[in-house]
Every structure is written in structure tokens, then in C-alpha cells.
Design the sequence.
């Protein structure tokens, strides 16, 4: 009679430990200054929005070293410098880089292609993602392949008679 109870408990334990970590595992955070929300983890990425001081955000995860964190708030998703982000720890707010590992903030990676596809298709700079290190955006239209034409030019810039 004991065997079914152990099996059910074991199955429940396995189900809990195998549940993937998702955005629901995010931690509440707070912005400490007027803070640019960027389209990637670095100042080279375009700004998506600016959060005001005290804005509450959901911290999805941070890059290794806890320098940049992926956050969301009020329908905005993007990356902020962790230096200007606080998270709750022991009923107090603490700077994210100092406490992130202790509270278990996930270490995440950034893939510009999938991230921008999911969050920034409507932005004017979406098609320029190669400028930021991402893959080229393919047009929905099929473009006609044209064989390259070659011109021979002399040193003075004029065409040669070849």
C-alpha cells in the first residue's frame, strides 16, 4: 500500500525539478536613475525607452558577470545596465551586481536574431540589425538574381576599351 504513495511523491518531485525556468521566474527590480532601455546588452544598441527613477521592472536574467540585465515593464522589453538596477534581498534593496548571484538571478545569453524577432519588428532600426552584429533581415519579397556586370577602368577612372 505504501508503494503507490512513494511513486506519486517521486513523480511529483521529478515534475517539479524538471520544470523549465521561464520569464515567470523573474525577480522584481527597481531602476535607480533615468535609465536607457536598450535593444541589447551594451551601449552600442539602440535605445528602446527610458525608465524613470523608481520604476519597477521584472528582471528576466543577466549576462555573465551581471553587467547587463534583460528586463520588462509595462509592455517594454530590453536590456539595462545592472549598475543602475536594484533588487530585493532580505527586505532591503541592493544593487543587482552585488547580490544577483546570491538571490539566484539566471545567467542568460543574448541572441540578436531571435530576441529582435520577438520584440522589435515594428521598430525602424530592426532592418539594420547587421549594424549591431545580427543576421541580415530577409525581405518577404523574392528578389530577382542579377549577374554582376564588370567594368574595367583605367587608372584615370575611365572605362577601358576591352
Sequence:
Amino acid at each position: 500500500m505504501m508503494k503507490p504513495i512513494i511513486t506519486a511523491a517521486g513523480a511529483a518531485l521529478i515534475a517539479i525539478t524538471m520544470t523549465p525556468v521561464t520569464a515567470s521566474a523573474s525577480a522584481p527590480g527597481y531602476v535607480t536613475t533615468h535609465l536607457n532601455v536598450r535593444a541589447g546588452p551594451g551601449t552600442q544598441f539602440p535605445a528602446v525607452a527610458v525608465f524613470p527613477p523608481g520604476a519597477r521592472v521584472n528582471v528576466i536574467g543577466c549576462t555573465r558577470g551581471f553587467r547587463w540585465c534583460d528586463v520588462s515593464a509595462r509592455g517594454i522589453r530590453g536590456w539595462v545596465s545592472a549598475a543602475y538596477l536594484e533588487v530585493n534581498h532580505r527586505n532591503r534593496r541592493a544593487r543587482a551586481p552585488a547580490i544577483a548571484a546570491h538571490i539566484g538571478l539566471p545567467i542568460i545569453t543574448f541572441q540578436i536574431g531571435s530576441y529582435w524577432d520577438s520584440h522589435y519588428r515594428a521598430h525602424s532600426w530592426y532592418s539594420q540589425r547587421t549594424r549591431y552584429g545580427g543576421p541580415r533581415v530577409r525581405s518577404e519579397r523574392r528578389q530577382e538574381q542579377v549577374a554582376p556586370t564588370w567594368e574595367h577602368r583605367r587608372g584615370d577612372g575611365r572605362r577601358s576599351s576591352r
Notes: The beta strands are 27-31, 35-38, 47-51, 56-62, 68-73, 76-81, 85-89, 92-95. The longest helix spans residues 2-17. Confidence is low (pLDDT under 50) at residues 1-24, 139-157.
